[in-house]
Specification:
Elements (H helix, E strand, L loop, with lengths): L3 E5 L11 H9 L8 E10 L4 E3 L15 H4 L9 H13 L5 E3 L6 H10 L7 E6 L5 H10 L7 E7 L17 H15 L3 H5 L1 H4 L3 H4 L7 H9 L3 E5 L2 E2 L3 E2 L2 E4 L1
Parallel strand pairs: 1-6, 2-5, 2-6, 3-4
Antiparallel strand pairs: 1-10, 7-10, 8-9
Helix pairs in contact: 5-10
């Protein structure tokens, strides 16, 4: 089976930035078998209920403002996978997690930024799953568990941010602050030790959790990947702009 991955996509400019996380993502595809399809779980698609995009051809959504013009010229128009979207909706339904299909949405930058670095040819079918910020981490772990059969031939790529507080960024790229390091260390040990109950309660138990994630959208994809696998391996850790942690994990 293919792994479930969690990656941090960082700034939308990641494909243009000379940072360690970009180099890591460029080499990541070589570490796993080529998937028949990719399910991207992005922090940038928020819905009330689990929703899968079911389109024949993905468009590229530039869901950001104020960045360099070169960024808006980037496109990742990978084929879609509407039949697989329907199959996965059925898996979620049978697990008591009714899902919806969206027949028009393309790929937001939480999906296409890491995919562009991993699979630049854009020749693997991609579908996307939303997150539900009003629901719990445990809900997202359950989503991952229900989607485990997809790993027989497909790659689950959960994309968010390990630490994501835009108001706390250091645009001069200073050293990572201690509060970010404390939070990341707690999360890393909880993930590797498979402390599911602790992770579900991370907002109360992890030091600096609310500071690391003022809103939960960017950490929720991690719980989907966690639920879709068992053994965890940390693949990468780095920080940009001070506290923007770019950690990545593999779940087998």
């Amino acid at each position: 089976m293919l792994p479930a991955l969690f990656v941090s996509h960082g700034s939308p400019t990641l494909p243009l930035d000379d940072v360690p996380a970009r180099d890591f993502l460029r080499g990541l595809a070589a570490q796993i078998p080529r998937p028949k399809a990719i399910l991207a779980v992005s922090a940038h698609w928020e819905t009330a209920a689990p929703t899968l995009n079911a389109v024949a051809q993905n468009s590229t959504i530039h869901d950001f403002h104020g960045f360099p013009p070169a960024l808006y010229k980037l496109a990742y128009n990978a084929p879609g996978a509407p039949e697989i979207a329907s199959e996965l909706a059925g898996l979620l339904e049978r697990a008591g997690l009714p899902a919806r299909l969206d027949t028009s949405r393309g790929l937001d930058h939480g999906a296409w930024v890491p995919l562009m670095l991993m699979y630049p040819q854009a020749d693997i079918p991609v579908l996307q799953l939303s997150v539900q910020p009003r629901l719990s981490p445990a809900h997202h772990v359950a989503l991952g568990k229900a989607l485990q059969p997809f790993r027989e031939s497909g790659l689950i790529l959960a994309s968010g941010g390990f630490v994501h507080n835009l108001r706390a960024l250091d645009w001069n790229s200073g050293p990572e602050p201690e509060w970010s390091q404390r939070y990341a260390a707690w999360m890393d040990s909880a993930i590797l030790e498979r402390r599911t109950d602790d992770l579900a309660a991370y907002r109360r138990q992890a030091p600096e959790a609310v500071r690391a994630h003022p809103s939960e959208d960017h950490i929720l994809p991690l719980f989907v990947a966690y639920g879709a696998g068992e053994k965890a391996t940390r693949l990468h850790h780095s920080a940009t702009f001070g506290s923007l942690r770019m950690d990545a994990y593999r779940f087998d």
